[in-house]
Amino acid sequence: MAQDNTPIALITGGSRGLGRSMALHLADRGVDLVITYNSNSGAADDVVKQATAKGRKAVALQLDASDTASFGAFAERLASELKQTFGRDHFDYLVNNAGTGLHKPLAETTEAEFDSLMNLHVKGPFFFTQKLLTLLNDGGRILNVSSGLARFTLPGYGAYAMMKGAIEVLTRYQAKELGARKITVNTLAPGAIETDFGGGTVRDNKQVNAMIASVTALGRVGLPDDVGAAVAMLLSPDSAWITAQRIEVSGGQSI
User: Fold this and answer.
1) Which has the closest alpha carbon to 117: 166, 71, 163?
2) Regarding beta strands 184-190 and 91-96, do their DSSP bridges make them parallel or antiparallel, or are they unpaired?
3) Which of 29, 58, 121, 196 is spaced 20 to 30 Å from 47 by Cα?
4) pLDDT tens-digit profile of 46-62?
């Protein structure tokens, strides 16, 4: 029997928000899925059910994306799941999406809050990717999620934004070093999106929503599907010659 060559995407933080939209858009394009979740297994199971209903294979695995000590064991679980569920030894697309926000002035940000951001947004993607490189197919894709806040500034997001700046530099170095394996690496930088991220302020606060829409070229705040569709595009075969790039999906926010 010929091996199934359906591409497999691994999305961290794939149970909610942008990660959920990414997963379902990829499923619509015929991509099988491994999503990770931190604590909400019910939400993760719902994404798996929806992807399965679209005719895709999908599994959800628990992961604390800030706990680097757990990544070795996760890689072993992933290798087992790839064989058991997908009949494969490797996967094709890695999306480093998991994250949380912090809105606090620089003068009030504590060292513990800084370290928490660093562990999740910088150390996490760095060492998680490192652990999974042997499981990622040659010719595969890595997409690191940054933020429009690494380009424009909004007071209170300095610590969070500097972590995303680090990710954008990491992307370029990964693209250079993994190019010999024909692996492309790019940065996806969403603008403000209506999700529960950061307590759902952009989605639920009408004043904040209107303020952002007023400085956005396309005249509205982004929706999860705007980002999910962009990810599906960037992981499609048509994007194979794009690497080391920062692609902002913000509707022209603060240009």
Assistant:
1) 163
2) unpaired
3) 121
4) 999 999 999 999 999 99
Q: Is the pLDDT of residue 223 over 90?
A: yes
What are the residues facing 91 on neighbouring strands? 136
* Cβ pair 98, 124 in contact under 8 A: yes
Residue 140 domain flag: yes
Report the residue count for the chain. 255
Residue 135 lies in a domain: yes
Any idea what the Cα angle at residue 180 is, between residues 176 and 182, rounded to 5°?
95
Domain limits for position 78:
8-193+223-249
Is the entire prediction scored with pTM above 0.85?
Answer: yes
Instruction: Give me the pLDDT at residue 127, please.
Output: 98
Phi, psi for residue 189 in degrees, rounded to 5 = -120, 95
How many domains is the chain partitioned into structurally?
1
Q: Read off the pLDDT of each residue in 135-161 and give the average, rounded to a whole number.
A: 96
